[in-house]
Amino acid sequence: MATKLLQICLLSAITYASAELEIVNQWNLLSYDIPYGFPTHKDFNPENTMSTGFEVGWERVFITTPRLRPGNPSTLGWFPRSKGDYSATVSPQLQAYPSWEWHAAAGKVRSITFPSEVLRLNTLFTNIVLDDLNEDAAGGYGNCDNIFAYISDSTNPGVLVYDSRNDRAWRLSHPAMFPDPDFGTYNVAGDSFTLMDGIIGLALSPPGTSTRRLYFQAFASDRIYTIPVSALRAGPNQGDDADLPVSLLGTKSSQAAPLAVDNRDGSLIFAPISETAVASWVPGSTEHGVLAYSPELLQFPLDVRSVDRDSGTIWLITTRFQKFFKQTLSNKETNFRLMRITKPIDDVVRSLSNNSLLLKK
Fold first, then answer.
1. For residue range 210-219, what is the model confidence (pLDDT) as tens digits?
2. What architecture (CATH level 2) is domain 112-255?
């Protein structure tokens, strides 16, 4: 099959897509509901707090705030989920998960120690997806003792595979996981910066088939690749890295961090940064479309997902990471937004002429 090149051209899509975004929560700067007397770091500064991911529960929304710069009192927080009344003015403070006492005591829920041979001096884990297995290998939801976890290392590009049933871990790498120097500079809303990060976006095709695949992309790249999960589960690669069965899936119009699979139709969701857009594509087909576009609201999405607890609706978090990177975040501007794409999947018209999403062979 010929390589498929996906390129977004949004000049005629502005009116079509901008109305499909619904703001759930938004913040100028993320803040924590820190208990009185809690030991805070002397370098804590809200302008140094960045969210890189989220998860939507039935009653709560969980949000990650890794210590990309020192000082964050919690790296995993939560706030109550609004239901039926999504407000554009709600900026809840973050509670520590599972508790402030847990973070003060540097506690742990479950500890997994990776063997030294799979780690590198400056390993940076940036994403994780869970390949959840049933006893009958039919897919669906299993349990924490019957999964494979695939974890991206962006600074030493590779995928760490953890087999929970056998408590084993190994590292796999491939040239496709490395950054491309031609795409190391990012241009977003008039700001430009350089960051040579490798593999970051991970997404699994729908479960329940023997041909399930992992989709992945490097941050500094315009390409999306795929590899069968059977190759990841098989254990350490005894040959050359390039021997792994990695295939080029498509080429985007600019770099992107997150990948997701829409649970409703199996389409791949990605968010090209320079185009400030969210796009959908059914891999291997010409079915593709622009789901949302907004130069203001869609500055630097860092996570996107199809939320099971919201009937598969696409949620995403945007961060203005370009300003965080250049240390120009302003507490007088809205920098973080948690949003839903409200257009029903049946109403998304995926075609070349209607959505200005160019597919070239």
1. 789 999 999 9
2. 6 Propeller (2.120)
